[in-house]
Design brief:
The chain is an all-alpha fold.
Length: 268
């Protein structure tokens, strides 16, 4: 009785690895596109750090670039929803997804393979931005264990954004609607504590920013890296690490099964 579930799990793992390799092979044939995706967050980091950093006043005169980097890497994880959405929507629009559905393969492997490949890309982007941060003077101050915990929380946020992107792409199935998604992603990123203190915002916007899942990850990363922040003063700020775990897990619990179910029902 235990052989069949084990066999299915092995089958799903092999199919997931195969489709992950398919995505990585596509990127290998388009290195310029991958390079632009990796360097865009670096450009934003340098622009915000050097163009606007001099105008930002932090508590106790803290360095703005050390403050900025956790917010920027969290923004990089958020931007992943657009990349995932575009790739899945293009496959769906071109009929690739329908061809996969006709093959004797794991039903979940198409979306899990895409998610794993995007997570690997996110890890590479995270390494590039952190490397740039070190080059301009940023440092983690609480040791390697805390720094690795911060990296894990950032990747957990990206994992949640991946499943949101997969679900929206399977729901809408139109690559050109990515512009509408971008309109939603940018306000979500900026209505957070990544660049300014929520206390400086209007009351309703400050409440949204304080409870923004991105704000939880940013505050937790700053704490674990030992970088300056805006301080506590609210329940979400005082429990940032717990919320940085809870928010992504909640999003994954909602959108992962929705994505798999939506993929299985395509064409019905």
């Amino acid at each position: 009785m235990t052989v069949l579930p084990l066999s299915r799990a092995r089958w799903a793992a092999v199919d997931t690895a195969t489709l992950t390799g398919r995505t990585l092979a596509h990127w290998a044939r388009r290195p310029g596109e991958v390079l632009v995706g990796l360097l865009f967050p670096v450009l934003l980091l340098l622009m915000f750090g050097y163009l606007f950093g001099g105008a930002m006043a932090l508590p106790d005169g803290a360095d703005y670039r050390e403050f900025l980097l956790p917010g920027m890497v969290a923004m990089t994880m958020l931007f992943g929803v657009e990349t995932t959405y575009t790739a899945v929507a293009v496959d769906s629009a071109r009929g690739v997804t329908d061809r996969f559905r006709s093959l004797p393969m794991s039903r979940a492997a198409v979306v899990t393979g895409r998610a794993l490949a995007d997570l690997l890309h996110a890890a590479a982007a995270l390494a590039v931005v952190l490397g740039c941060g070190v080059a301009i003077g940023w440092r983690p101050h609480r040791g390697p264990v805390a720094a690795l915990a911060a990296v894990a929380l950032l990747l957990l946020l990206r994992f949640a954004m991946i499943w949101l992107g997969v679900y929206l792409a399977l729901l809408l199935r139109r690559p050109e609607t990515v512009a509408a998604l971008q309109i939603l992603v940018w306000p979500l990123g900026f209505a957070s504590n990544a660049f300014v203190a929520p206390a400086t915002m209007p009351g309703w916007l400050a409440a949204l920013a304080a409870w923004n899942p991105l704000s939880a990850t940013v505050a937790a990363a700053r704490d674990l890296f030992g970088n300056p922040g805006w301080g506590a003063g609210s329940w979400p700020a005082e429990h940032a690490v717990a919320l940085a775990v809870a928010w992504p897990l909640l999003l994954v619990a909602v959108f992962l099964p929705l994505s798999v179910r939506r993929w299985q029902r395509l064409g019905r």
